UniProtKB/TrEMBL annotation:
Transmembrane segments: 9-30, 50-68, 80-104, 136-155, 160-178, 184-203
Molecular function, one GO term: hydrolase activity
Bilayer topology: Multi-pass membrane protein
GO cellular component: plasma membrane
Native source species: Rhizobium leguminosarum
Main subcellular location of this protein, as a coarse class: membrane
InterPro entries: PAP2/HPO, PAP2/HPO_sf
Name used for this protein in its record: Membrane-associated phospholipid phosphatase
Keyword presence, Cell membrane: yes
Domain Phosphatidic acid phosphatase type 2/haloperoxidase, chain residue ranges per copy: 86-199
Keywords assigned: Cell membrane, Hydrolase, Membrane, Transmembrane, Transmembrane helix
Length: 232
């Protein structure tokens, strides 16, 4: 692991999750969001569904590969190859982070907020096989965190907007009553870190990213070497 100060980030994340559990989870579980807030959450929460993100990443990959074979100029081939590797990167980080998050939530077995009055917020039933006990971490938030962290790494100029989108879409799970705030924070952090680690792997393979001296993955310039598109 490169020196990315991951210990400090892990410490901050754990404290944010614990404080959220102690301060916010109980009020959220004991009450219901106002109707306008819940309606807003229902309109937005579908954007965190992994299905359309997976389909989009697959489309990008195959469209880029097809374009690479069809176009003639080196510049166009480089662009097509770049698009295909973006699709591969998004597919890898969204799918694998989602699978791990689903495994974690089943293993932890935390009861969802709509069962707060029956079980409380510290009720854990590992591997129950019931969706009512799959609250922590939030799978939607993991997907959202992974997706927008990936774009923040690929296009750092717009990282603030991507972070804001991730927080908003993640918190829609609280608005609709599907998760506690701590579930969302854990999911966003898990997805974001998974995207970062995947970017490091891609950088070490010479794909999409390069490693800065401090170990941080930096997106390659698209046309840094148009004579060698395979180096992207």
């Amino acid at each position: 692991m490169p020196p990315l100060r991951w210990q400090a980030c892990l410490f901050i994340t754990l404290n944010a999750v614990i404080l959220s559990m102690l301060l916010f989870d109980a009020p959220i579980g004991a009450s219901e969001a106002p109707a306008p807030v819940k309606h807003l959450g229902e309109m937005l929460t579908g954007f965190g569904d992994s299905a359309w993100l997976i389909y989009t990443s697959i489309l990008l990959f195959f469209q880029g590969r097809a374009g690479y074979k069809l176009v003639k100029t080196a510049r166009s081939k480089a662009q097509a190859l770049y698009v295909s590797w973006i699709g591969a990167y998004l597919f890898t980080t969204v799918v694998l982070s989602g699978l791990l998050a689903n495994l974690l939530k089943r293993a932890i077995g935390r009861a969802r907020p709509d069962h707060f009055h029956d079980y409380g917020m510290f009720s854990f039933t590992p591997f129950s096989g019931h969706a009512a006990f799959e609250s922590f971490p939030s799978g939607h938030s993991t997907t959202v965190g992974a997706f927008f962290a990936a774009f923040a790494l690929l296009f750092p100029r717009y990282r603030v907007a991507f972070i804001a989108c991730a927080i908003w879409l993640g918190m829609t799970r609280v608005m609709v009553g599907a998760h506690y705030p701590s579930d969302v924070i854990a999911g966003l952090a898990f997805g974001a870190w998974f995207s970062l680690l995947t970017a490091i792997v891609f950088a070490r393979c010479g794909l999409l990213f390069k490693l800065a001296p401090d170990g941080w993955p930096l997106a390659k310039r698209l046309f840094s070497d148009t004579e060698k598109p395979g180096a992207l």
